Structure formats: C-alpha cells, structure tokens
Amino acid sequence: MKLPACQNLLKRSFCLFWGILFLVSICALAGNEFWEKKDYKQWAQKEVQKILEDSPWAKQLKLEKVAVMESNASVNAQGGEMQRKITYQVQFRTAKPIRQAMVRQTQLAQKYDSLSAEQKQEFDKKTEAFLSGGGDAVVVMVTYTATSQTQDLELARHWQSRTLDLLKNSVYLIPPKGDRVPIAQFAVAPGAERAFQFVFPRQVNGKPIISPEDKSVKLEFPYPVIDGMGDGRAFL
Questions:
Q1: Looking at 17-21, 44-48, 120-124, 203-207, which range is the least confident one?
Q2: pLDDT tens readout for residues 68-120
Q3: Which residues of 117-147 are buried (b: 16+ CB within 10 A; e: fewer)?
Q4: Owning domain of residue 103
Q5: Structurally, how many domains does the chain consist of?
Q6: Is residue 1 part of a domain?
C-alpha cells in the first residue's frame, strides 16, 4: 500500500478505546478483483461502495443483540423482539484504492462521465494531489452507528472523551514483521458527526513499517461494551 498524508477531497474540516479488543486485518493482496481489471474512472457506484465498505482496505465490525420488548396494555403496544446493532466502519484512508474510490464517488455525484474533455481535465487537476499522496503517515478513519438513540449518545460520549494520552497504550498498527506501532495522533469529529481518526507514523527508526512485499497489516483497538454487545476479541 502507498501511504500518503491525509487530505480531504470533500473539503471537510475534520481530516482525519475501554472494553473488548478489536482486531481488523486489512489485506493488501487483493486477488483478481475489479479494482485490478478496471481503471478507477470506470468504477460503478456499487463498486465504489464495495471499496469503501468491504474491501482489503475497509472492513466493518458489527455488534448485534436481540432485545425482547414486553407488551404494555396501557399504550396498546404489543411485545416482540427488536434487533439492536452497533457498527464500526474502518477505512485505511491513505490506501490508494480508498482515495480513488473517494474521487470516483465525487465524479459520479458531479456526472463526470458526461463532462467535456476540458471539464474533465480541470476536475482531474483538482484531484491530482489527493490521488498522488505522499507524506509520512498512515491514516485510519473509523465511523460508527447505532440503531438505538441511547446507544448512539453513549458511544458519542465515549469517543468524544478519548484523547491520545488515553489511547497511546491500547491502539496499535501491527505489520506482518516487527513490533506493534502505537498511534501518533488521534482526532475525533465534533458535534453530531460520529467518526474518529487514528494516525500512525509511516516509519519507525528510519524504516517503513509496511514494505511492498507485505501481504497484510492489522489494526488493534479496544471498544466500549454497551448493553453487553461484544464478548471477546473480534477479527475482520
């Protein structure tokens, strides 16, 4: 994976644990997939979503629980079951396919394929720096959602109270070879946005933490246990 500095294509101000341990494996060996066969400018919307949500560079952790609802005659409500879910979406934002998918998503929104050659050239010029990358960091973006408003607020309180000092001994990038690499920076989205970001150094002691021949890299972080959801070490 090529690991450039974090930039925000959509010009957002936000660029970018306590409980059970979460371990996610992001494999660099993609196999014979569409992203190897097609130029990113030919990706369809569903292919863009595949890259951003469920690919070698993006994974989801889903925590689920079925809650039993009792009937309440006073309000004429019937009992039943309700599924509650917390989802963490992890993206290696400095992986080139993720950046290509973000650009393609913007292209589709702006009807890039129907633009004139001159308009396409202007668009490409604006996104060139974002795609080429560079920099000295590995950036991992995590967004989270919950089906319950109570859970959503509890999650937001937890993550918005985290700091680098609280996380530096529990959040790591784990290359196939070598020691675990602790985070160098942490940022959390303010307000109603449910997202946070881990930043790791690209090099340790003058050596890249990920080499071109590496097949995978792992992200390790603990997450809060809410309503009993999560019961051990998770692997994605």
A1: 17-21
A2: 555 554 445 555 567 889 999 999 998 899 999 999 999 999 999 999 999 99
A3: eeeeeebeeebeebbebeeebbbbbbbbebe
A4: 20-66+82-235
A5: 1
A6: no
Q: Assess if residue 209 is contained within a domain.
A: yes
**DSSP characters for the chain?**
---PPP--TT--S-----SEEEEEEEES---S-HHHHS-GGG--HHHHHHHHHSBTTEEEEEEEEEEEEPPBGGGTBPPEEEEEEEEEEEEETTSHHHHHHHHHHHHHHTTGGGS-HHHHHHHHHHHHHHHH---SEEEEEEEEEESSHHHHHHHHHHHHT--HHHHTTT-EEE-SSS--EE-SEEEE--TT--EEEEEEESEETTEESS-TT--EEEEEEEE--BTTB--S-EE-
Amino acid at 89: Q
Give the model's pLDDT for residue 178.
72
Domain annotation covers residue 72: no
> How do beta strands 234-235 and 20-27 pair?
parallel
Looking at the domain assignment, is residue 151 inside a domain?
A: yes
Tokens representing 8? 């925000």
Handedness of CA 99, 101, 106, 111 (dihedral sign): positive
pLDDT band at 154 (very low <50, low <70, confident <90, very high): very high
pLDDT per residue over 187-203, tens digit each?
999 889 999 999 999 88
The mean pLDDT of 194-222, rounded to a whole number, is: 86
Q: At which residue do the structure tokens 């090099």 appear?
A: 203
Single-letter residue type at 198: F
Side chain identity at 116, as an amino acid letter? S
